[in-house]
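input
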Amino acid sequence: LHTDHFDKRFLSEIIKNQKKIPYIIVKAFDSKRFINQIKKVWPEEYIIEVEEYTLLQISTMEICIFPQISASSAQSETLIDYDLDTSVIVKTKDGIVFNEVDNPYSLIDYDNVVCPKLKALGLEEISIAFAGYSGASPYPQCHVNINRTEENERIKKITLSRFFEVGRKLKPQYLLPAGGSYKLDYPFSYQNNYISVPTIDEIIKFNE
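output
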């Protein structure tokens, strides 16, 4: 669970309708503001804080949390420490699943940190990897002083190139696009044609 995917009302509704309370797993962030907000709607004994790069044994599976490293998947220098998103790796007797979630690792992050950490933890033989293939951004659809059609295609090429390059670095048996698509509602629905989220057909065609 991350702060940008956290909704008190949603969690409150879940817990009302569960016969058995599920556990919430969250990274042990340095700041306790987030965990304190969760505790307001969720029983503390059903919240598990996990240190980054540490294997947590739960029943027959192991879970590992990888922290955010960069502010953007495009390698950039920044003085801001975005300790916000996380990725999760789940290991069972049947295989290993890597879920990048919306953690913006750059390709350099994969080379210097992610892949070496996976190997050190014995998690490098990935069965299924979920990786981002688009960006949740107002650009180019919300900008009027550009050629939005051309920019849409350009950004799709960049995000798809990264998606398949992540696959080459992780070497999973199966690589799946994750993050989903979205649509703008009226009165902005006319901008939907410019949202830089590739379709499944575009993903397949890009890799042919």
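quick obs: The beta strands are 24-27, 47-50, 56-58, 61-67, 86-92, 95-99, 128-132, 174-178.
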